[in-house]
Write a structure and sequence with these properties.
11 helices, 16% strand, globular, alpha/beta
């Protein structure tokens, strides 16, 4: 099975910042084979739309329940359908000046679980700018992709899952900026996550995750991590099984109860 992972850090200014990693899952073995950049958000849309594969993407699929109720009648569908109702500045003004993590109402339950920043925050990182572009991407993929956990699994279309690469690096006790992070990743995965799951990064993929100076490209490395997380979670938690939908072991009961409003970050373990 082909698996994709995407780093969407360049949602506002995509030049050199949106990266896609792809690899092959074969039983308990996963190989990251390719890493490439997207010059424009439309390139990412094209890649997703023309695949029939699972994608682990690192942007928030929804917003905290408080704001979803306040602005969108507690409806994720309405939130996505309204993607073109606001300019970028108007969308920002919906939430005001928010510093991530200062108030629990500004975080989704799943953000708290993975220690992620608020999707609507403006400082220290303008997450709302990423969310603005991500929401439009999801809007344009409506009917052409299945977005977990809001929409049912469909094998004939691309499937999108929310991934947080930072949680993956932390789980492996690695720093994405460390020169040897990719070289050490396989051993760390076995030691920290699952000794029975083999992760390999091809020389071509490792080379593509460096910049022109030969230094680590953090966006490319996050795409690699998203791809690995996606592959492992599909294998371990059977997210694309035909069985009746049930709560995966990584998710808390509260996260699961809120999933149709706030979404759910897929991860290797709680």
């Amino acid at each position: 099975m082909i698996i994709y992972g995407c780093d969407f850090s360049g949602a506002k200014n995509p030049e050199g910042k949106i990266f896609v990693a792809s690899g092959r899952l074969d039983g308990d073995s996963f190989t990251v084979e390719e890493v490439s950049s997207c010059e424009d958000r439309l390139d990412l849309y094209y890649l997703i739309r023309n695949s029939r594969a699972p994608w682990g993407v690192d942007f928030p699929f929804s917003i905290p329940e408080y704001y979803l109720g306040q602005q969108y009648d507690s409806s994720w569908d309405k939130f996505i359908q309204g993607a073109y109702e606001d300019s970028r500045e108007q969308f920002k003004q919906r939430f005001g000046q928010i510093h991530s993590g200062k108030n629990s109402r500004d975080l989704r339950v799943t953000d708290i679980a993975v220690d992620a920043k608020s999707p609507v925050s403006s400082t220290p990182i303008a997450m709302h700018a990423m969310l603005y572009g991500a929401r439009r991407l999801l809007h344009n993929l409506q009917g052409e992709a299945a977005v977990y956990p809001f929409q049912p699994y469909r094998v004939e279309v691309p499937r999108l899952y929310e991934i947080y690469p930072g949680h993956g690096w932390k789980a492996l006790k690695l720093k994405s900026s460390a020169p040897d992070a990719l070289r050490d990743l396989s051993a760390s995965f076995k030691a920290q996550v699952d000794s029975g799951f083999e992760v390999t990064i091809s020389p071509a993929a490792a080379a593509a995750a460096t910049d022109a100076r030969g230094q680590a490209n953090l966006h490319a490395r996050d795409a690699v991590m998203a791809c690995i997380q996606m592959a492992y979670c599909l294998r371990k938690y059977k997210l694309e099984s035909s069985e009746e939908e049930c709560r995966p072991a990584f998710a808390s009961e509260e996260e699961w109860e809120m999933r149709m409003l706030e979404g759910l970050v897929v991860r290797m373990f709680p």
